[in-house]
Amino acid sequence: MQLHSITLRAMQMRLKAPFTTSFGTEWDRHFILVEIRDTEGRSGWGESVAMKEPIYNEETVATNWHMMQDFLIPLLYQNPVQHPENVYKLFSHIRRNNMAKSALEGAMWDLYAKQQGISLSQALGGQRTEIEVGISLGIQDSVDTLLELVGQYVSEGYRRIKIKIKPGWDVAVVEAVRRNFPDIQLMADANSAYTLADCDHLVRLDQFKLMMIEQPLAHDDIIDHGALQRRLQTPICLDESIHSLEDARKAVELGSCGIINIKIGRVGGLTESKRIQDYCLRQGIPVWCGGMLEAGVGRAHNVAITTLPGFTLPGDTAASSRYWEQDIIEPEVTVQQGLIQVPTAPGIGYQPVRKIIDEYTLHTATFRP
Ligand code: OSB
Ligand code: MG
């Protein structure tokens, strides 16, 4: 693949409503948008899901910028690849920094698919023409507000509801949602807010027929989750703990989870996401695509990866309009009856709109070979 230039844009987009998890509240989404141009004028797009602060994982917008500028972009220029599948290996001697790697790798995948004249889903070997999605609801000011939101999104057709939990906002809240919505597919995400000392408390969640409990224990743990899983009937889903296929294999072999949330950025890109999904399919472990409050480019990548056969559970890829007054792509991602129609146009299949992108751009830099 002949590269002409790589442009990074530091972006800031205001969320329609603040998003609260056990680790904090986001009002504005800060992220890096990547555009890789080839010598024939095509552009591949990627989005880093690292946040402004290192509170979900260790990466930030600033560390990603540094990693891309000083290490990853030079590697791409010095080692031309024939296929985006080779980018993961090219970056592998650089430790972690998976979200930085993934943003560049994703842009290479989009560019490759456009060069081949096929959709990103097709380039990845995806099969589905539509994908089922759910929605993730942050911690609210009151249970009534949460119940109202759940009702709204259930009536819009979302296929499962995820609620965020933390100590003090857990059993009673899940109980209230379940009582009001006895038949919905419901799950809870703790973002590592508990320890094994909370085992007896977490076991109380078993009575609410949750599809899964996501990442109850430490962000870097796969041992204690195994101990908790042996006490819980509800499947544990790992999010923060899984950074690679190797992590997934170890967690599955230890019995630490029954389900895995795949976030493209967290595992270092589409190639590794695809491998984890392959492995989980063989092991009978359902996977779904997690969300990081993405803007349109990242959202489009999530749509594409979800078309692979292992993604058997509805993910967090909600409609653009759930997050943004105006997304950076056209058309925006829309959800009808809990389904997203997978675009068939080349690459990500949604067009990034430069005029809108410019409105949200804080600063930019272009790198040439
Ligand atoms: O744990 O899945 C998570 C958002 C930011 C960081 C971590 C998580 C989330 C979400 C939101 O749950 C998912 C989304 O709607 O994009
Ligand atoms: Mg999560």
Strand content: 15-25%
**Class by SSE composition:** alpha/beta
- CATH architecture name of the largest domain: Alpha-Beta Barrel
Q: What hetero molecules are bound to the protein chains?
A: 2-succinylbenzoate, magnesium ion
CATH superfamily of the largest domain: Enolase-like C-terminal domain
**In angstroms, what is the radius of gyration?**
20 Å
| Overall pLDDT confidence | 98
Could you explain how this protein is built, in words?
This protein is of the alpha/beta class and 369 residues long. It has 2 domains: 3-117 and 351-367, Enolase-like, domain 1, CATH 3.30.390.10; 123-341, Enolase-like C-terminal domain (TIM Barrel). It is 33% helix and 22% strand. The protein is built from 12 helices and 15 strands. The strands form 4 sheets. A 7-stranded parallel sheet has the order 5-6-7-8-9-10-11, covered by helices on one side. Helix 1 (61-78) packs across helix 3 and helix 9 (245-253) runs parallel beside helix 10 (270-283). The longest helix is centred in the N-terminal third of the chain and has 19 residues, at 98-116. The model has no long low-confidence stretch (mean pLDDT 98). Bound molecules: 2-succinylbenzoate and magnesium ion.
